[in-house]
Amino acid sequence: MADTSKPLPVSSSQAPQFAPEQEYLFREVLRIVNEHKVPYAVSGAFALHEHTAIWRNTKDLDIFLAADQVSRTMQALNDVGFETEICDPVWLCKARHEHYFVDLISGMSNAVIRVDQSWIDRASQSEVLGIPVRVLAPEELIASKLFVAFRERFDGSDIAHIIYRTRGNLEWKRLLELAGEHWEILLWALMLFRYVYPAHSDYVPSALWQDLLSRYAELLQHTNPNAPFRGSLVDENMFSIDVKDWGLEDLQGGFRTRRLHKQAHSAEPNSSNSGDHQKSKRNGRGI
Fold first, then answer.
1. What percent of the chain has pLDDT over 90?
2. pLDDT beyond 90 at 173
3. In this predicted structure, what is the pLDDT of residue 206?
4. What is each CA distance from 103 to 3, 42, 130, 202, in whole angstroms?
5. Cβ proximity of 84 and 74 under 8 Å
6. Three-state SS at 48
7. Are residues 35 and 166 in the same domain?
8. Rounded distance, CA 258 to CA 17, Å?
9. Containing domain of residue 127, as a range?
10. Which of 195, 222, 249 is at the close of a domain?
């Protein structure tokens, strides 16, 4: 994951030149997870390039995997000398070499969307730096970006680019399934796409437009006075005043608490430290 406190690197059509230490880390981590037969898929800048031809120079490599695969992956990386840390037990661990790192991602920081084996099964065969890998499918890549709408970073442009470059040849039913009860966030992303590319609104199936817009119209006509405040699911910092000063519910806190409780009771390994080189701290906020 890129540091969300800093602007994203400029995107271009030119492949980035990775520093030798950076390329070493990426290659070694991929070699190790392949050697240990970890079920994973590459996301981030490499997946964005796979589906849009856009290159983004980034310091990190994003590896998506189910939560029950995190512990053994961290241990395998520890065993060869990489420093690892649990940055957030809900979704993010890292492996480091000098000032470069690889992210091990099992969901989103707000705990709304989780990576499971189906994400890996749907990934396609590709290569990263000459290493055979599976790369996240465009539907899961879009889903991973739906809630990245922070003051410091907004992935709506990535979603628009994926839809545009794939000409809308997506499994929309799958995307609806991934968004689930949060389909309004998907509609928001689609409205941005339509605004940016008005000549290509047909890249989104008309039946999907009708479905989502009719759902939205129904919500507006029948407002639920007990509907919870959801700002913290988008950005807990920008909407912190609502929770701290105005007394509205911290919905993200509830999602995260339930996720951690579930991890503890199912013995998901990234809910606790497992290795002498691991340390825990929360310093990220989205995929």
1. 77
2. yes
3. 98
4. 11, 10, 19, 36
5. yes
6. helix
7. yes
8. 42
9. 11-222
10. 222
